[in-house]
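User: what does the whole thing look like in 3D?
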Amino acid sequence: MIWTQTDYAGWGRALRASGEVARPESRADLAALSNAPAMGMRRSYGDAALNSGGRAVDMSRFDRLLGFDAETGLLEVEAGARIGDIATAFAPRGWMPAVMPGTGFATVGGCIGQDVHGKNHHNAGSFGQHVAEVTLLQNGVEATATPGSALFEATMGGLGQTGLITCATLQMKRCKGDLMLVTERRANDWDEHLALLDGSTASYTVGWIDATARGADMGRGIVEEGENGAGLMKRRRGAHRVPMDAPHFALAKPVVRAFNWAYFHRVPAHGRTLVRPLEAFFFPLDKIHDWNRLYGQRGFHQFQCVVPLGAAAALKAMLAEIAGSGLASPLAVLKRMGPGRAGYLSFPMEGYTLAIDFPNRTEARVLIKRLEAMTAEAGGRLYFAKDSLAEGAAIRAMYPDLEKWQAEVAKADPQGALATDLVRRLHLRTA
Amino acid sequence: MNSWIILGATSGMARPFIRRLAESGAQLFLAGRRMEELEALAADCRLRGAPKAEVMAFDARDPANYAALIDRFVQEEGTLNAAVFAGSMPEQAQIDATPELIEGVIADSFTGPATFLQMLVPEMETRGAGTVMGIASVAGDRGRLGNYVYGAAKAAFATYLSGLRNRAGRKGVHVITVKPGPVDTPMTQGMKMPFMTTPDAVADDLMRAIEKKRNVVYTARIWQVIMTVIRLIPEPVFKKLSI
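Assistant: Here's the predicted 3D structure for the full assembly of 674 residues, as structure tokens:
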């Protein structure tokens, strides 16, 4: 296996690493690997996929579909397979992944390592709850884990620390086809926004929030509800690409305010229902390759927290801070989560989750620190897939099962060969 | 029914293209040397929608078994198509040390694929339809210090494809010459090269080339401009350059 000295970064591009990377394409390549943490398409925003100074295994080309049982809907895939590719291949035939994150570029291995959630978390739970089996390479020895075992729970959301995830069997769910019927409604303020999310009975529900709106408009946004459907629709092929790092003013306050105003008002006051391709509903930004370059060379941070249902007021206070700062980008999402989670370090809890991007600037980092403290006070939780700034002690306290995870990880990787920048920065394995 | 035979199907550049063919509902015949890899790829293609995906043992350096593969392939009814990804690129320094390696490079990249196509194309002409897609290289546009033996083999293949297009086009068979610049595959791993593209992007270009019946395609596109400039450099100047 060839190891290539590579500079790479998390999706937010604020945290970067330099080290040797190997990219296996076959089982023979895998067998020739030394023990190192795996990464996929590097869609985690911070340093979850980084290993500065050490080696890392790029699994993005280990991506074949291995087998599918059309009776049970069990799909066996290699860990580098992308969730969007799986959806595209199977939806026309009546199956789709039970849970899909906001980008189709996420790999199966990454979805497991972060136990990701989707727009249907309130009724379908997390990704790991639909994994029937996962195959790990632990120091060169193959191990499998199935639901119910401690190894499985340490692997779902386990940040790749229990072994290199090579293959998984996913329980797919039946669907009608590759279209989505999408209803969009305006929510004029915070209370209306929460009420729409609380009252939604749709399979897929998500709120886009205008994080620049203040005063009476604060919390306004668009609530999208989706149901799967079948039919014929002309699909636009190809994607756009951001060819270079954007200048700093590309996401300056007036630009974002104007964009958000237009984005809010594009939906009529009485709402609307339209038909969208499946990919457009689930992966709205995937059509713009390398959109992270819009934040310029310095990159950006995403703040995502979840707070318990009873702490909605705390979330509103956070939004007030954000709106007051004028630092938010147009990418802001509010969603009601269910209780579903599959592993010791899974992010979800029943409550409301808020995700917002900020350019990587001093004021933004200060604001995020403040938001993190407010999350802790509210009994909430931060997301390892997004985090790049948290304090170790604060974030560890948000994961009550950390010790169980540590015990399994110590067994699976006693040498600490799979530790990543994130694990070291937050002292997840050692504290 | 549309059927494709792919020579060198386990090549890193071929995989996304083959998947797009599978998703389009084509029958696939995957030919190469690494059988276990071919089997895994065939299973992947069936799961992505290929009604049929068979594997074939193909070694460009063993023309004796070409006829059997072609006999099997032409049993399929409908439109026959062929894509050639086969080829090999040892380091120039390795060839300098062992000149006998040239024979293998020429066989993998030129004489093998050309012989195979020469045997297959008459049947395609009889049916009056189909596409031949051959992967040449920007390296074939001008002999350069770094890889001129590989470049020579690809130049020969490109010239062959040009003639084949001239011949077969009269009978409804379209021939596409593809000239990729550097693509991020195992073949180029560890090399620092400009304007590197990805196998996914190449696959998009190839599908478009088939649809639009393009003759010669550079991928990434920028290489058409770059190679035009490089070809224009006068030889007295070029021979002193190390580009």
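In plain terms: Chain B touches chain A through 17 residues (CB under 8 Å). The beta strands of chain B are 2-7, 27-32, 53-57, 79-84, 131-135, 174-180, 216-219.
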